[in-house]
Design a protein that fits this description.
2 copies of one chain form a homodimer.
Chain A: E1 2-6, H1 10-30, E2 35-41, E3 44-52, H2 54-64, E4 74-76, H3 80-86, E5 91-94, H4 106-115, E6 119-122, H5 125-141, E7 146-147, H6 158-164, E8 171-177, H7 180-192, H8 196-205, H9 214-217, H10 220-233, E9 244-245, H11 253-261, E10 264-272, E11 277-285, E12 296-303, E13 308-314, H12 318-335
Parallel strand pairs in A: 1-2, 1-5, 5-6, 6-7, 9-11
Antiparallel strand pairs in A: 2-3, 3-4, 8-10, 8-12, 10-11, 12-13
Chain lengths: 337, 337
């Protein structure tokens, strides 16, 4: 199986690392022979039909910052679209930076791959939150697969879990802590009694919150995931503008203390149900599965037969997110056997 | 698909209820036409090759206590083995009372079904905890399937989750709260400051703990689940006698208070790792996925790539446990398509 990896940031590098670690195991366990035939970054690309060396890709990127410096097979200033045109591959790994205004350029990459009858695995929330049905229909028309476990909750396997693990049950609604940064901030506010501003500042210094934290703290990131879950699991046809969003920047220490005195915590919760698409701060009971702290993600499926079933996992991390991408690759491979 | 249900206690009746609720949905969704051709209890059996009425089965059992009173098709004093001999079925649902001394009579029922080339779905911990390899090998030799999601954690789908959802990862170890009764007792001790004896007594009055609570509070029930997880997920070859077991009856209020002051809770934890098979009270951090209260079950898979992934669900309940059995039935059906 030949992979074309567009984007070589944290997730793309994670994919290279995971393939390096697991190449032999995948062969033995599944008969799956993985080859990276192309990798791109803003400098250009490395392209080799017989397969690039994942460790050398990582070393070149770390040492020089530019994948186009890959010996012999590096190419400067080639665009992602040109790479898609030129390279021999079976599955596109779309991990370029996400854009939640128009989903580009990821959306065009994915549609181009579909038109060329290639499968796609992505962690890219933008195109999924803005153009889910268009992408799903294009995949269907071209008889190829689109998989995106890594786009929601990183290493928390919520999509495969909901689709495969409970075939006897109908899923009535989904509630989740879908953003690790805000969970980290709210947890520390509850534990330490410090203000939102103080903890946000420290989180930024630690690299947990971004310099521009708006997408996390205003709830947009969680809302993208709400859209993906709604479309993928609840068979809805919605986009980001359909989600009611309230972030955490107005949460005061007083509110958190009041809640705690009654045995509750405040968490930023995404809800998907028949009538509701919402991200907002809500009270959760201490001792409930939502009372987890740190950067963990949680999602609860409310079902007709099994009541509440919950999955918890790391919402971010290079290797963790790449593990979800590799699981999707394996799933595509197994479906063709 | 014709089902023979041995045992008509809470789980067996749950299966009948769930089939009654979902019969049409299963046809539409999966093309699966479920028929109950036999049900047994200590009074005898009801047998009808064209399919018994699940609602009438439930009504007869509720009104008279004896399934042998089923009109026209009821039979008194027929043994389970005779029923297996006589009845036309594809899949045995083995839900007779569990026995953790020798696993009988469930073990003989399952082996008889295998020899007759029938698949088996069971919630019965006894035979799985005592004779896992023997049963697994017999299933293999006879080219039939043995499924037992309901035997661990009721509606917490840990087995299917571990087998299907994380194909990219190796599972290094498993930690779980695998017994709802003890989790309920420990949670109330922590919240209310009452003694173990007091809460146990109240739990018995509420029907959450049994009159003879030994299997729960001494850790044997959790240990059975540890054995099943070890054999099924970690590819071990162990039985109940290989598990080191310490129960919760010696846990004092003082120990719980001391732990709480440091931000910890005491939970009865089952551990399966390369060198360890153990059930014992352990400290878990507040804010961790193990800090859930009530009768919930939790299991964390420690993986090589995705770090910790946790699933939480209801550990008991008639309908909830039956939902796991129905998921196993669907899975067997789909594997033959």
């Amino acid at each position: 199986m030949k992979l074309c990896i567009l984007g070589f940031g944290a997730v793309g590098r994670g994919v290279a690392k995971v393939i390096s670690m697991k190449k032999e195991e995948m062969k033995e366990k599944y008969g799956l022979d993985l080859k990276i035939t192309a990798v791109t970054d803003t400098s250009g690309a490395a392209i080799y039909d017989e397969g690039l060396d994942p460790n050398l890709l990582l070393k070149i990127k770390e040492d020089t910052g530019k994948i186009s410096n890959y010996p012999e097979y590096g190419i400067s200033k080639i665009s992602n679209m040109e790479v898609l045109h030129k390279v021999d591959f079976d599955c596109l790994i779309e991990v370029t930076p996400t854009d939640i205004e128009n989903g580009e350029p990821a959306k065009s990459h994915i549609l181009k791959a579909f038109n060329d009858k290639k499968d796609v695995v992505t962690s890219n929330k933008g195109p999924l939150a803005l153009s889910f049905r268009e992408l799903a229909e294009s995949a269907k028309e071209n008889n190829v697969q689109l998989k995106y476990e890594a786009s929601v909750g990183g290493a928390m396997p919520i999509l495969n879990f909901a689709h495969d693990t409970l075939p006897s049950c109908n899923i009535k609604s989904i509630f989740g802590i879908l953003n690790g940064t805000t969970n980290y901030i709210l947890s520390r506010m509850a534990k330490e009694g410090s203000s939102y501003e103080q903890i946000l500042k420290e989180s930024q210094e630690m690299g947990i919150a971004e310099t521009n934290p708006a997408q996390d703290v205003e709830g947009t990131d969680a809302a993208c995931k709400v859209v993906i879950l709604a479309n993928s699991i609840m068979n809805r046809d919605v986009t980001l503008k359909d989600v009611e969003i309230v972030g955490i920047s107005k949460i005061t220490q007083e509110a958190i203390s009041l809640a705690r005195n009654e045995g509750y915590l405040i968490k930023l919760i995404g809800e998907i149900s028949e009538d509701t698409l919402e991200v907002s701060p809500r009270l959760v009971r201490e001792g409930s599965p939502f009372a987890v702290d740190g950067t963990l993600n949680v999602a609860t499926l409310k079902t007709d037969l099994a009541e509440d079933v919950t999955v918890v996992g790391k919402g971010a991390g290079s290797i963790e997110t790449a593990s979800a991408i590799l699981s999707d690759i394996i799933s595509i491979y197994k479906s063709k056997e």
